[in-house]
Design a protein that fits this description.
The protein has helices at residues 5-27, 106-115; strands at 87-92, 98-102. Among the domains are: 1-33; 83-117, no CATH class. By secondary structure, the protein is α+β, with helices and mostly antiparallel strands. The radius of gyration is 42 Å and the shape is flat.
């Protein structure tokens, strides 16, 4: 069994394309043959001069660990449960969304239970 015509034609087209590329490369000096490297003249190493660093004055920082600094903000008020509403429990509304359930609003607990399903 011989090689099919379409395969031979494809191979011939590829070879022709490669030949045209070689001709173009040779014409414009892009030959694939390696050129002899240029000989470089030896230059002895000379270290770079020391870099210039600007003198920066040192400012002492304010120590706040042993005293309260005037002008600082006041501490936030602590949140404390006053007991006005009786907390029955905590429901999970969606994934990890925790919602408090109070005694005066039991219908809300039933609605949240329905939402979960």
């Amino acid at each position: 069994m011989s090689t099919p015509k379409w395969k031979k034609d494809a191979r011939m087209a590829e070879q022709l394309k490669a030949k045209e590329k070689r001709i173009w490369d040779k014409k414009y000096g892009l030959s694939a043959t390696p050129k002899k490297p240029k000989v470089r003249e030896f230059v002895p190493y000379t270290p770079a001069p020391e870099p210039y660093y600007r003198e920066t004055p040192h400012y002492k920082s304010l120590s706040t660990s042993d005293r309260i600094v005037p002008g600082s903000t006041a501490p936030a008020e602590r949140k404390v449960y006053t007991g006005e509403r009786r907390l029955l429990g905590i429901a999970t509304m969606h994934k990890s969304n925790m919602v408090p359930i109070f005694e005066d609003n039991k219908e809300e607990a039933k609605e949240i239970a329905r939402m979960r399903r």
